[in-house]
Specification:
By secondary structure, this protein is an alpha/beta fold. The chain has one domain: 3-Layer(aba) Sandwich (Rossmann fold), CATH 3.40.50. It has five helices and six strands. It has a six-stranded mixed β-sheet, sandwiched between helices. Helix 2 packs parallel to helix 3 and helix 4 crosses helix 5. The protein is globular. The two termini are 18 Å apart.
């Protein structure tokens, strides 16, 4: 019997596997790109503009290592805020990657950079309740609304085909 974590892991593997099979069957020299967008994990309540992760936030950040264990990750990005960097740290360390920063106030240019730099790759991007949906929209032309301040359990998969056609999937990972 599968537990919830196993079900999410299987969904992720199936989504990525079918995406790559579909793309491999296309006759194009250009490769697809897979962007996995995650809002930072739970933060402590603080008057600071740059709070630390809470205990539950660290648990969620560490769980990302298990969720994406079998997924080849080529790059990890995080906004320059502590809560985003700390969310990305365990996964980046497990994948032996550094964490690249991006400016959350320049999402359109960051989306173009991702599309120009990471075709043929799988990239994790950790952001915020407003920047994560805005970046999805910049990458895919969709209209996802900002997340509620209490929502931490959504993971978005943005797959860009070799022809530039976006496909967005949203999966909830509850803890």
């Amino acid at each position: 019997m599968c537990n919830n974590k196993s079900k999410y892991f299987i969904k992720i593997l199936l989504f990525l596997g079918f995406s790559h099979i579909f793309i491999a069957c296309q006759h194009s020299q250009r490769k697809s790109a897979s962007f996995i967008l995650i809002r930072h994990a739970e933060k402590i309540l603080s008057s600071s503009n740059d709070p630390h992760l809470s205990t539950k936030g660290w648990q969620r950040a560490n769980e990302l290592v298990h969720i994406f264990k079998a997924v080849d990750i080529d790059a990890v990005y995080a906004s320059p805020y502590r809560r985003s960097i700390d969310t990305a740290k365990p996964l980046a360390k497990a994948k032996q990657l550094g964490i690249l920063n991006y400016n959350p106030s320049e999402l359109d240019s960051f989306a173009q950079k991702l599309l120009n730099t990471h075709m043929g790759e799988t990239v994790i991007i950790v952001g915020h309740s407003n920047t994560t949906p805005q970046l999805i929209n910049a990458l895919s032309g969709t209209k996802y609304p900002n997340l509620d301040e209490t929502e931490y359990d959504w993971v978005y998969f943005v797959d860009i085909s070799p022809k530039g056609t976006p496909n967005v999937k949203k999966i909830q990972i509850r803890m």
